[in-house]
Structure formats: C-alpha cells, structure tokens
Amino acid sequence: MGWIMPRWKELPASLDERVRQLVVQLRRLKDRSGLSLASLAVKTSYSRSSWERYLNGKQLPPSDAVEELARVCGTDPTRLLVLHEVAAEAWSEGMGAGDGTDDVGGLPVRDRARRTTWVLVATVVALAAALVAVLVTTKPWQDDDAKPADSATGNTQTPFIFMQGRARPCHVQRKNGELRVGYSATRTTLMDLKSSGWEVLEAQCLLKHHGFDPGIPDGSYGERSKKAAQDFQKDRGLVVDGVIGPDTWGELRR
C-alpha cells in the first residue's frame, strides 16, 4: 500500500512546544491561503528562503513577518501575534538539542542565555540613547504646526526612508478644517511616477481615506497610486493626469 509524502517537513524534535504551536498555525494559515512560498515572497517583505526557514522551525519569524502573513491571507493577526510573543520568550530561553548544548560551537544553553541577555541589554541601551536623541531633535510633544518644516512643502525635517512593500499606518484626522494624516502638511508639492517621500505617503493615505486604493501606503508613487489619483481626479472634476498638484491636494484635504 502506497503512502503520500507529507506536505511539510517534520519539525525538529528539539523545538519548544510554544514555538511549535506558532509554526503549526502559520503553516495552516499558509495552506488555507493556497499561496506558495514564492507568492509569499512577492506579497510580503520577506524572501522565499526566509519563509522556508520560518515555516520549518529553523528560525523564529519576526513579528512583522507574522503580521504580514496574516494580512496577505486576509485574517486578523492578533491571535498569531500573541502566539509569537510566547514563542519569542521560549526562543530566547534557548532551544538547543536535548543534550543541553547549543548547535553552534557546543555552548551550554545556560551560557548562551547569558550571552543573549548581555546582547539584549546592550541593544536596549543603544536604542534608548537613539530614542532620546530623536526626541530632543523632533520634540514630538509640541503641536504638529510647531515642528520645524520645509517652507516650500510643509514637510517635517525627519528623513524619509523607503522600505519596499512595508505599509505605514494611515490615521486620518480633520484638523483646522482640513484632512491630515501627519506625514506632511503640503498643499502644493507636485508628484508623479517615481516620486517618493512623506508627501507621497500623505497623499496615499488621503486617497485611501476617500475610497481610492493606492496600493500599499509605503511612500513610493507607483502605477497603482497614479491610477488611484486619476480616478480621484475624474470623480472630483479635475484634470485627469495622475499628477498630484495644488488642485488635487485641495480636494484631498477636504
């Protein structure tokens, strides 16, 4: 009698049960979606080889990867993120083979945990110092209008760093009679294909708020964002060219 090869490789026997539960849930979600590893690589910020390691228990996936998988599979990530938090705690405690040694260099789990603790402490100290520097520079406790801004565009002086496929939050609010997201206060910046920056992210969020899908709000003005701008311009009786300028900004802010 023949047998069917399992779809997934058997997880390592030394894998902590808490991590195992997370990986099993991620596998089920991936299977239900019908997506291949290659498809996940296209739809998320992580490569095919990364997903192979995550889903075979070779490496703990970052929380962002868990959240992106839930997003592309159309499910709420809350439960998975709770499982990830528990799994991360287990992973940090050390998951070497049953003989109590690390799989790299034969270090005892106890020594590995001590080393990891010192690395974490050093990282936290460095992050705290960086955060203090950012707070002193940007002064987020001030009103948005009081932050240093470029006189031509109204953008804050914080440098924009583009991360392909990484969505940024869109929290649209009405302030001083106009819609704002908080990334840029501009009403004049011209944007077309290949533009990028805080003002692009502001426009993407406002287009999404008005019901015109610009794709992932990542601050890069691509074909999908331009198509959303054209549809918005047509709806508002503007010149339909996909170029966001003063007239389009005026409608987006309404």
Question: Any chance you could write out the topology, listing elements then pairs?
Answer:
Layout: H1 17-33, H2 37-43, H3 48-55, H4 63-72, H5 78-93, H6 109-138, E1 173-175, E2 178-180, H7 198-209, H8 223-235, H9 246-252
Antiparallel strand pairs: 1-2
Helix pairs in contact: 1-5, 2-3, 4-5
Structure description:
The radius of gyration is 23 Å and the shape is globular. The protein has a two-stranded antiparallel ribbon with strand order 1-2. The chain has nine helices and two strands, in the order ααααααββααα. It has three domains: 17-95, Orthogonal Bundle (434 Repressor (Amino-terminal Domain)); 98-138; 139-254, PGBD-like superfamily/PGBD (Muramoyl-pentapeptide Carboxypeptidase, domain 1, Orthogonal Bundle). Strand 1 (173-175) and strand 2 form a beta hairpin. It has helices at 17-33, 37-43, 48-55, 63-72, 78-93, 109-138, 198-209, 223-235, 246-252, and strands at residues 173-175, 178-180. Mean pLDDT is 82; it is low at 1-6, 96-109 and 141-157.
The fraction of residues in strands falls at: under 5%
* Low-confidence spans: 1-6, 96-109, 141-157
Q: Main β-sheet, in a few words? A: 2 strands, antiparallel
* CATH class division of the largest domain: Mainly Alpha
Helix/strand structural class: mainly alpha
**Structural shape:** globular
* DSSP summary: helix tally: 9
Count of separate structural domains: 3
CATH architecture of the largest domain: Orthogonal Bundle
